[in-house]
Specification:
Helix content: over 70%
Strand content: under 5%
Distance between the termini: 47 Å
Order of helices and strands: HHH
Low-confidence stretches: none
Largest sheet: none
Number of helices: 3
Shape: elongated
Amino acid sequence: MIVKYAIALILPFILVAGLSRFSLNAWVGLIATLGIMMAAFDGAYQPLPVILTGVVSGLAGLWLAFKILKNKNLTK
C-alpha cells in the first residue's frame, strides 16, 4: 500500500513537469498525465486517498511547469 502512495506522490509531478517541458504547454502536460495515470494505473479504481495524493502531486507539477515555461520565448 505504501508503494501506491509513493507512486501517486512522485510520478504525476514528474510527468506533468516533463511533458509540459516537452510540449511547451503546461495544460497539455496535465491532460496527458491524467490520461496516462488513468489508463496505466487504473486510476478510477484506486482508493480515494491515493487519488487525492496524485491530484495534489499533479497540481504541484503544474505549478512547476508554469514556473519553467514562464521565461521561455515560444516565438523565436
